[in-house]
């Protein structure tokens, strides 16, 4: 996926409230545009949605700019405010700009989000544009993005095969030894695993020491992924840190 700018990185305000849905309930992916200047920032859009519309947060799950930067809005599984009554089932992605402003980089970023959503959902979500959803009569996302979604969201230069999906993720080979404690040991394997878990969003110290705190993260991860829960990082738990969807 392209560059993801986290909420903290773009200075998002905290949501007033948040409702979550599940991947099982997700069935579609909807493209929007902001219909404003491409120089608008996610924060300006969030301010408008929270102060002007009175919504709990920026309405979209993600936003994409002309450079192909992806900004985290409500994220993958929060119910959005972008296309009622489809907010629970559909992920809403907004291109920041007007009709005709969307660049190849922006389209590639939106397509990347769609592929990633399918990977996380473990199924193919329907592609849609705002005005194409039932109960939504709007020109959003403009003629250019509408025809692009209709054409299967082809990425320029990729041959335009809409059915292609991202290659399955792969993990580096498990270097051993199996991480187990006590006693607390320091290994390069542990440091790499801690680093990877931290990249996935876990609160973990990256110091190479496999102690009780690391083992606790390991057990939580194993529980979440349905692995056998033994608090040891062996080949399966190691590989899962790279290949299991981040939830
Ligand atoms: Zn829209």
From TrEMBL:
InterPro entries: Amidase/PGRP_sf (IPR036505), Amidase_domain (IPR002502), Peptidoglycan-bd-like (IPR002477), PGBD-like_sf (IPR036365), PGBDSf (IPR036366), PGRP (IPR015510), PGRP_domain_met/bac (IPR006619). Residues 153-176 are annotated as: Disordered. Residues 166-175 have a biased composition (Pro residues). Residues 2-137 form the Peptidoglycan recognition protein family domain. Pfam families: Amidase_2, PG_binding_1. It comes from the Bacteria. Residues 12-142 form the N-acetylmuramoyl-L-alanine amidase domain. PANTHER family: PEPTIDOGLYCAN RECOGNITION PROTEIN (PTHR11022), PEPTIDOGLYCAN-RECOGNITION PROTEIN LC-RELATED (PTHR11022:SF41). Belongs to the N-acetylmuramoyl-L-alanine amidase 2 family. This is Peptidoglycan-binding domain-containing protein.
């Amino acid at each position: 996926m392209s560059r993801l700018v986290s909420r903290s990185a773009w200075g998002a305000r905290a949501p007033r409230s948040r409702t979550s849905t599940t991947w099982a309930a997700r069935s579609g992916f909807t493209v929007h545009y902001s219909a404003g200047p491409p120089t608008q920032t996610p924060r300006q859009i969030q301010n408008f949605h929270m102060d002007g519309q009175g919504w709990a947060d920026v309405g979209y799950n993600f936003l994409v700019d002309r450079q192909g930067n992806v900004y985290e809005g409500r994220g993958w599984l929060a119910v959005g405010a972008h296309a009622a009554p489809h907010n629970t089932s559909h992920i809403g992605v907004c291109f920041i700009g007007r009709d005709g402003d969307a660049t190849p980089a922006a389209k590639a970023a939106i397509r990347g989000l769609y592929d990633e959503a399918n990977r996380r959902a473990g199924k193919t979500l329907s592609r849609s544009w705002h005005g194409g959803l039932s109960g939504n009569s709007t020109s959003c996302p403009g003629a250019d993005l509408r025809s692009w979604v209709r054409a299967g969201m082809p990425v320029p230069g990729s041959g335009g095969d809409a059915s292609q999906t991202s290659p399955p993720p792969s993990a580096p080979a498990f270097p051993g030894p199996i991480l187990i404690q006590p006693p607390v040991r320091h290994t390069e394997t542990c440091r790499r695993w801690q680093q990877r878990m931290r990249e996935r969003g876990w609160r973990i110290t990256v110091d190479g020491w496999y102690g009780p705190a690391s083992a606790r993260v390991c057990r939580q991860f194993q529980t979440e992924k349905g692995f056998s829960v033994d608090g040891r990082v062996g080949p399966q738990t190691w590989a899962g840190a790279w290949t299991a969807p981040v939830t």
